[in-house]
Amino acid sequence: MGAIDRLDVERRLRDIDAGISTVTDRHVDIVAVTKNKRDDVLETAVAAGVRILGENYAQEVRAKADVIDRIRARGAEVHFIGQLQTNKVRMVAPHVDMVQSVDRQSLVDELAHRAPGMRVLIQVDTSGGQGRGGCAPEDVVSLVNAGRSAGLTVEGLMTVGPAGGDPDALRSAFALVSGLANDLGLQVCSMGMSDDHLIAVEEGSTMVRIGTALLGER
Ligand SMILES: *Cc1c(COP(=O)(O)O)cnc(C)c1O
To answer: Which of 7, 67, 105, 122 lies in disulfide reach of 39, CB 3.0 to 4.6 Å?
Structure first.
C-alpha cells in the first residue's frame, strides 16, 4: 500500500475514539498496528496523534529500527505484538517499550536476560489453538508469577480473539481474559482489533490494537 494521508488517519482515530466512547467511560489506549507498513506510514500515524505503535515481526522491527527509534525519542511507544522466537529477542528488545506476546517460560527467561525489567503482557490463547500464540488460560497464573520472579514488569494480559468473527465466541473469550486480569489485579487488558474492538471494550479491554481500520488494508 502506498502513502496515507495524515488527515485521514486523524479522522479515523477520532471515529474509533468516538465509537469506544459510546460503549465505555473508561480511557482505552489505541495501538496502531503497523505490520507490513512502510516507514512513512509510521511517521504519519504518530503525526496524526497515535501514541503507541504495534509491530509483529522481528525482521521488520530490525528493518524499521531507525524510524522506530526516532519515533520513540519523540515520546511514542512501540509494542511488539507478534509471536516471538527466543532467538529473536535480542533483535527486538532494544527497539520496543513492551512485549505483549509473552506466552512461555523460555521467552520469560530470554527477555529477563536480554531486557531486564521489560514491560510485558502475558498472551492468552482464546482461539482454541489456531497457532496465533498464547498460553492456555490455565497457565496464566504461573506465567504471570514467572515473569514477576524473573524481574519483568508484568502489566497485564493480551489476547487475539477466536477467528471467524462469531460475536458470542468473541465476547466469551474477551470476558474470560478480562476476568483473569481482574482476579490477578493486572491493569492492562489488550484485546480487540479492527472488527471486534467494540465487543472487546464492552468486555473490559483497556487497550485495542487497530490496523486496517486506522491505516487501511495491508
Ligand atoms: C494484525 C494484528 C492486529 C490488527 O488487526 P486489524 O484487523 O488490521 O485491526 C492486532 N493484533 C495483532 C496481534 C495482529 O497481528
So the answer is: 67
